[in-house]
Each structure stands twice: as C-alpha cells, then as structure tokens.
Amino acid sequence: xxxxxxxxxxxxxxxxxxxxxxxxxxxxxxxxxxxxxxxxxxxxxxxxxxxxxxxxxxxxxxxxxxxxxxxxxxxxxxxxxxxxxxxxxxxxxxxxxxxxxxxxxxxxxxxxxxxxxxxxxxxxxxxxxxxxxxxxxxxxxxxxxxxxxxxxxxxx
Length: 156
Ligand code: ADP
Ligand code: MG
What we know:
Layout: E1 7-13, H1 16-28, E2 34-39, H2 46-55, E3 70-74, E4 79-84, H3 93-96, H4 99-103, E5 108-112, E6 126-131, E7 137-143, H5 146-155
Parallel strand pairs: 2-5, 2-6, 4-5
Antiparallel strand pairs: 1-7, 3-4, 6-7
Bound molecules: adenosine-5'-diphosphate and magnesium ion.
The site of adenosine-5'-diphosphate (ADP) has 15 residues, from α1 and α2.
C-alpha cells in the first residue's frame, strides 16, 4: 500500500539554537499518542533535535540512546520514549528489550534510524528528514497521518 503524504513542511535553520527552538515549538504543539521518525546522516542533528524536544517537557538531562537503544522520560504531564535503532543489526532485537510494552499506551515516541527497526517499531505520524552541513540544516517534515497533519498546521 502506498503511503499518501498528506502535508509537507520544509524549513531552513541557520544555527543549532534555531534547531533547538524549532524542536521546542514542535514539542509545545505535540500531544500523545504521537510517533516521530528522525532521519538523516550521522551527526546531522537528530539527537540534538530530540534533546530539545524532550527538554521542553522539563527533563534537563537527555542522553543519546545510541547504546541503550531507548531512553524513557516520564513526569506528571508526559511519557516519552526516545529510540535510536542505529546499532540494531536486526529489527527483531527490539523484541529483547520488550518493544511491545513501549508501543502500548499514551506517549510520544521519537525514533532515530527508523529504517533499521522497520516492521517492529510503530508507524510514524510525522517523519523529519534532516540534512545540511556547518551550522545550516534543512528539515523536511512529512505528515503520514491526520495527527501529523494537525501538528504541522499548528507550527506553520
Ligand atoms: P545525530 O543524532 O543526527 O547523529 P547529533 O545531534 O548527535 O546528530 O549531532 C549533531 C551535531 O551537529 C552536534 O554536534 C551539533 O552541535 C551540530 N550542529 C551544528 N549546527 C546544527 C544545527 N543547525 N542543528 C543541529 N545540530 C547542529
Ligand atoms: Mg543520534
């Protein structure tokens, strides 16, 4: 079945500060349940983006889940799971960490390297593709569901 892209938003960010601000604006308009894929080369800013997004909800320390596969954040208002599938050699490995439990319930999921978790991770509401070099970044945000589309309308 073809994925119909309902809405696309493109933006250029000229500094890390602008990326951080953009991530916080997105966070401010995000409501669970929501799944966001973060795509792009190594070092392009996926974790930087996720960190600011998560910090918006009051979590100061956000470390990259590259080695742990997933880091979770929970407080009175939100429950967030931040995945990084980079080190997976097989999506099935996600079963070992109890992925099914992570897929239940009312939360936000941010997923780096989603292609490597294909077939096991939740489908995306919003896909964010990051590219660029030096301090400039181009972001393409594609909504895959009505919820993703609503989110893009909010930040546009
Ligand atoms: P990834 O998770 O995609 O591998 P990271 O977020 O770990 O990437 O690293 C991104 C790097 O790019 C950081 O060192 C960050 O300081 C740098 N950077 C420079 N400019 C930007 C920008 N505009 N947006 C995001 N990161 C930036
Ligand atoms: Mg990363």
